[in-house]
Design a protein that fits this description.
The chain has 448 residues and is an alpha+beta fold. It has one domain. It has helices at residues 2-12, 55-68, 90-93, 103-106, 200-205, 208-215, 248-252, 254-257, 267-270, 285-296, 309-320, 394-398, 412-417, 424-431, 435-446; strands at residues 36-37, 84-85, 119-123, 136-137, 140-141, 150-161, 167-178, 188-192, 230-231, 234-235, 300-301, 331-332, 338-339, 345-346, 353-354, 362-364, 382-384. Strands 4-3-8 form a 3-stranded antiparallel beta sheet, with no helix packed on it. The protein has a two-stranded parallel ribbon with strand order 1-11. The two termini are 26 Å apart.
């Protein structure tokens, strides 16, 4: 932890410069315009953009410290923690602003050390919150309080072969919730693991009209047609289902840490009906605003190995397979940039060409990935296209290559082969490539 903050301070004040950095004019494919970073170490996702300096640097470090610091049941030190929760620090699930390896794989579900690196979203059969539970299962609790339930997962592994004979296998998860706090009744569940927090600022600054325009494009010959998830008339961008318009839920610590705050002042209303510490603010507006600032100002790693022949070949194959119709390479941010929850406007995020490899739209990914849990305009089978920027550094940052919304895919190949529904054309195109072509396409993904 000390090394991390020392590195951040040195980067901020210009003492450390990456030998890999190239002049901006030599690169035409910067990942995130002026927020492109040239740090490719374990803090590749956790480094501020170059324009973060002076007082902004102090605020970045403040937000980063709040993000990383464990919360407790008191309010004097590091703020409060809900009576029931899933984790007690942002970094527990988003190590170095990435994706911590999930306890679904390391511990078979609910974590045994006071931490679970996933969220189990619950919904009643009539698509509303479950009485006494709310929208998220909290499987951890402070001393003297009973968790809402315990989640377990087992995996069924099935082996397949590509047409050229190379074998691969897929894991199908089987989830079970036991030890319910009360009788659960009928319910649907959606198990989701953390998303990388890299590129959040540029995502919130993206031109919404451009997203709407992309949604009008219909590639019926490939079975692809994206859809906006409208949240009270606004374009949803955040989360696996694009069911949030800003980072309020992320920075309030409400859904995962069970905290009460000015945005969600009553734990019982937002989370469940049996918590006792109601109307007790456990995270301040100032702290939430600093975390909001921190997430908005994170840099995005530049692409690497872009002149490698295999990477170039892989990119062509990526487009031939029509992956780029959902994982759109180039978007633009609006002129005004992005505005934080405290009213701070970050114009530095405005008028930028970015390459997130997503359209931020919903796509039907087929029954195998469906979960019957709806969210605004998103059906159970629909998921937001995951941004691919930074995906090639996930191993460096977090030490694993688990992908998809519930981390069922153990590597790039499995992630591609889980694409059903609107992703079926691309999946079949990949499957029918020669092995060296599949390897080249994966090498391209590793360059992002």
């Amino acid at each position: 932890m000390k090394f991390k903050y020392l590195t951040l301070i040195l980067i901020i004040f210009g003492v450390v410069f990456s030998s890999c950095k190239k002049k901006e004019e030599e690169r035409s494919d910067l990942s995130a315009g002026n927020s492109t970073s040239y740090t490719f170490t374990s803090v590749a996702f956790d480094t501020p953009a170059d324009w973060v300096e002076g007082d902004m640097s102090k605020r970045f470090l403040s937000g980063d410290a709040i993000y990383d610091s464990p919360r407790n049941t008191g309010t004097e030190m590091n703020g409060g923690l809900g009576e029931m929760y899933n984790g007690y620090t942002c970094a527990g699930c988003h190590d170095n602003a990435g994706r911590t390896i999930t306890t679904l794989h390391t511990e078979g579900g609910t974590g045994t050390n006071g931490y679970s690196t996933f969220l189990a979203f619950l919904q009643s059969s009539d698509q509303t919150f479950i009485d006494n539970y709310g929208g998220v299962l909290h499987d951890q609790a402070v001393v003297g309080v009973t968790p809402e339930g315990i989640l377990s997962v087992t995996y069924t592994e099935k082996e397949y072969s590509f047409p050229d004979g190379e074998k691969y296998s897929l894991l199908t998860p089987n989830y079970t919730i036991t030890d319910w706090w009360q009788e659960e009744g009928d319910y649907e569940q959606s198990i989701r693991t953390p998303l990388r927090h890299v590129g959040m600022g540029m995502m919130l600054a993206v031109d919404r009209d451009m997203i709407k325009e992309i949604a009008t494009e219909d590639y019926s010959e490939y079975g692809i047609s994206g859809k906006v998830n409208y949240i009270n008339g606004m374009v949803g961008l955040v989360g696996h289902k694009a069911d949030h318009t800003d980072l309020t839920v992320e920075i309030s610590f409400a859904s995962d840490m069970g905290t009460a705050n000015s945005k969600f002042p009553k734990e019982s209303e937002f989370i469940n009906a049996h918590m006792s510490n109601i109307n007790k603010s456990e995270v301040s507006d100032e702290d939430m605003a600093d975390v909001d600032f921190y997430l908005h100002t994170l840099g995005v790693p530049a692409r690497r190995n872009i002149d490698d022949p295999d990477v170039i070949k892989g990119e062509l194959l990526f487009k031939q397979a029509k992956c780029h119709l959902c994982h759109v390479q180039t978007l633009h941010t609006r002129t005004e940039g992005a505005t934080l929850i405290d009213g701070t406007t970050l114009t530095q995020l405005g008028d930028q060409e970015i390459h997130p490899y997503t359209d931020y739209l919903l796509h039907d990914m087929g029954d195998e990935l469906g979960d019957n849990v709806t969210s605004y305009d998103a059906t159970g089978n629909e998921w937001r296209t995951t941004p691919l920027w930074g995906v090639g550094l996930q191993t460096v940052v977090n030490g694993h290559t688990y992908f998809m919304h519930d981390a069922r895919a153990r590597n790039y190949t499995e992630a591609i082969m889980w694409h059903g529904g609107e992703g079926e054309y691309s999946r079949n195109a990949f499957a029918n490539m020669a092995k060296e072509e599949r390897d080249a396409m994966i090498k391209f993904l590793q360059s992002l």
